[in-house]
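Entry for nicotinamide-adenine-dinucleotide complex. Fields follow.
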Amino acid sequence: MYSVLAKSSSSSRLSVVARSLASFSTTASSAHQQPTISRITVIGGGQMGSGIAQVAATNKHEVTLVDVSQAALDRGQGYMAASLKRVAKKKYATDEQAQAQFVDEIMSRVSLSTKPTDAVSRADLVIEAVVENLKVKQELFAQLSKAAPAMAILASNTSSLPIGKIAEHLDDASKRRFIGLHFFNPVPQMKLVEVVRTSEADEAVVESAVAFVKAIGKSPAVCKDTPGFIVNRLLLPYMMEAIRLLERDVASAQDIDTAMKLGAGYPMGPFELCDYVGLDTIKFVVDGWHASGEGLAGNPLFAPSKKLDELVKQGRLGVKTGKGFYDY
Ligand SMILES: NC(=O)c1ccc[n+]([C@@H]2O[C@H](COP(=O)([O-])OP(=O)(O)OC[C@H]3O[C@@H](n4cnc5c(N)ncnc54)[C@H](O)[C@@H]3O)[C@@H](O)[C@H]2O)c1
């Protein structure tokens, strides 16, 4: 979600990330050594889970992809194969045999399962990417924390739920190995992974997660467990302010988009971005933060917008429904 601006990654943004990692590595005092991560279990075979599985397998990790539904797993496997075929075509142009070999070799490292507790029993890292529902995630981790090896890192890919809240009912040892690993959509293309550190997480766990993110060819940005982490905390107010400009009739959606693309160098205007993300998703996150988000309750940046509410009510949710701020 909200991944588009990350495409315009600038050297200054990367240098900020690099500085934060440098300061992190000098202050880190590892309580114990984490094992090197080679076996990953990804729970949730949807859009994000299948992307994470694909990227990990591409970078030589052994992956088990888990879902409650076999149909979802078959779909996830289909997404991965289709995405890898596109990569293979670019990489091996007219050599069809090399293309097939490339796809088969990567897919051979991915196994599928509908049994989460069995699937985590040998994992070094468990990444959860199931529906965005606190109760579902808490119940899942209550099981996984017992079934996974004691040293396995437990991670959630949530976009909007506090990481500490997902882990709140776990025992202390599990809280120390629990972090956020926030990937961006589409996972194979998007370079950033936010590594979210709770106040209870061991430094060695964060360090190991950073190393994993680099090992799969992504760039980590380490941040504290606060609403929206880095990217969404900055993007949501930007999108909401754009909607308020429109509500006040300052300019048309087209002119605001043109202004931000040509005047600020953004790859998409805020309304194109809203439509891409999904207006229902934006409303869900903003309303949640405004009502109860830690430190964000009542913040005017996240106050409800009549315009947004109306569009969602009309089913104009953006690109996915063919209509949002624009018609597609
Ligand atoms: N879609 C995005 O742009 C995006 C970006 C970053 C993070 N996220 C986060 O990633 C997570 C997944 O998002 P998605 O877009 O891939 O969702 P999705 O709906 O495409 O996939 C979710 C999958 O989880 C499965 N599932 C549900 N409950 C389960 C359980 N108990 N055990 C195993 N599998 C279960 C569902 O069958 C489904 O296949 C959410 O937390 C979301 O906030 C999404």
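NOTE: The chain has two domains: 4-224, 231-321.
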